[in-house]
Specification:
Layout lengths: L10 E8 L12 E8 L6 E10 L3 H5 L20 E9 L5 E3 L3 H4 L25 E4 L6 E5 L4 E2 L16 H13 L7 E4 L5 H12 L4 E6 L2 H10 L4 E4 L5 H8 L4 E6 L3 H10 E9 L3 H4 L12 H4 L3 E4 L9 H13 L7 E5 L4 H9 L6 E5 L2
Parallel strand pairs: 9-10, 9-12, 10-11, 12-13, 13-14, 15-16
Antiparallel strand pairs: 1-2, 3-4, 3-7, 3-16, 4-5, 4-6, 6-8
């Protein structure tokens, strides 16, 4: 990574590309790290030095060349994903860039320069040099993009990584999936698969705070099971690698399951359907057990949807964006009061971004996996 050139405003940045479409589990050879030269930002653009970037299970689906709700990644082009960074240059009306340390940066204001929203500017203004912004061009050290595609965030009240996790899309996914899709009510039993991941850790805590009678989680290690119960307040959890998932789930849910928040699919979805109560609801958030398995088998007990009148609904967080403000306000209150704990796993350096992504797919993370660039 090089700082913007004081004469030209250009910058050299490392960028990860998709080199090949993975077959089964991705390998390091499916990715390529290249260096690119970025020009100074033009009118309406900003140059952002990324500080943290997100790696998420949904990125695996975009590596396949198949139609979906979002376009697949293109071969030999940069990958994309959530990131938070600092604005280091902005395009002026004449098209020249203003960079760190320049007179225009110094005159941009005070509190805004550190990521705060000052009274002199509205939330819809062009970001200024020094602002912390959330955007969608991760997988690179520097991002050049339209200012309207960024959102200023306040890193004085929460760290940058929070806007990729607990206050970002994973948090809203857990909130909307549990409350709007599954329509969880107080005194119900809730089961969450992949409970030690970015979404699962938050879904379980939200269920507890919203009055669930029992909150049960599954995870892939004894350490994660302990964390769910001792640190996050789950009533019980089990290691899906320790034997029959169906048997373990039956032991922990003697009165059945009312709500299942599914992050895993496959065998865990099948086991949960056996335990669902009459008129139970299943919110299907992900199916990570099948993303890297081209030979995955289907669910064999879907007739239970009929006899138990179960509602099985897939969802995307994009469909619930209207809930974002309410979610942020409620989650911020829980964080402030110490009622929600944040789990994050960090991998340092752009060179290790693929290691972090593959580690996340293997379940090596506790909570949100974050690549820390600076």
């Amino acid at each position: 990574m090089t700082a913007p050139d004081s004469m030209t405003g250009s910058v050299t940045s490392k960028v990860w590309q998709l080199a090949a479409r993975p077959t089964g589990f991705p390998t390091p050879e499916d990715f390529r790290l290249v260096t690119e030269e970025l020009p100074a930002p033009g009118p309406g653009q900003v140059l952002v030095r990324n500080e943290v970037m997100s790696v998420d299970p949904a990125m695996r689906g975009r590596m396949n060349d198949v139609p979906s709700y979002v376009a697949p990644f293109k071969l030999d082009e940069a990958l994309e994903g959530g990131a938070v960074g600092t604005v280091v240059a902005v395009g002026s009306a004449e098209g020249s860039g203003s960079t760190e340390g320049s007179s225009s940066a110094e005159g941009s204001g005070s509190a805004e320069g550190s990521g705060k929203r000052g009274s002199a500017r509205s939330n819809f203004d062009h970001p200024a040099v020094g602002d912390s912004v959330l955007h969608g061009l991760g997988w690179r050290e520097y991002a050049l993009l339209e200012a309207r595609h960024t959102r200023v965030v306040d890193t004085t009240i929460a760290p940058a990584s929070a806007y990729l996790g607990v206050l970002g899309m994973p948090g809203l996914t857990a909130y909307a999936g549990l409350l709007d899709v599954a329509k969880m009510r107080p005194d119900e039993t809730v089961f969450i698969s992949g409970a030690a991941g970015a979404v699962g850790t938050l879904a379980g805590q939200i269920a507890r705070l919203r009055g669930a009678r029992l909150v049960i989680g599954s995870a892939g290690s004894a350490e994660k099971v302990r964390y769910l119960v001792d640190d996050l307040g789950f009533d019980a959890a089990f290691n899906y690698k320790d034997g029959s998932i169906r048997t373990q789930l039956k032991q922990l849910t003697p009165d059945g399951i009312d709500v299942y928040f599914d992050n895993v699919g496959g065998e865990q979805l099948e086991a949960a359907l056996f335990r669902m109560n009459l008129h139970g609801r299943v919110a299907v958030c992900g199916a990570i057990s099948q993303y890297n398995n081209p030979d995955a088998t289907g669910i064999r007990n879907l007739t239970l949807l009929i006899s138990k009148r179960i509602t099985l609904q897939g969802f995307l967080v994009l469909d619930h964006w209207g809930r974002r403000q309410q979610f942020v306000e409620e989650m911020a209150g829980w964080l402030r009061d110490g009622k929600v704990r944040v789990a994050e796993t960090f991998v340092d350096g752009i060179d290790h971004a693929v290691d972090g992504f593959l580690g996340m797919l293997r379940g090596e993370n506790l909570g949100k996996m974050i690549i820390r660039l600076s």
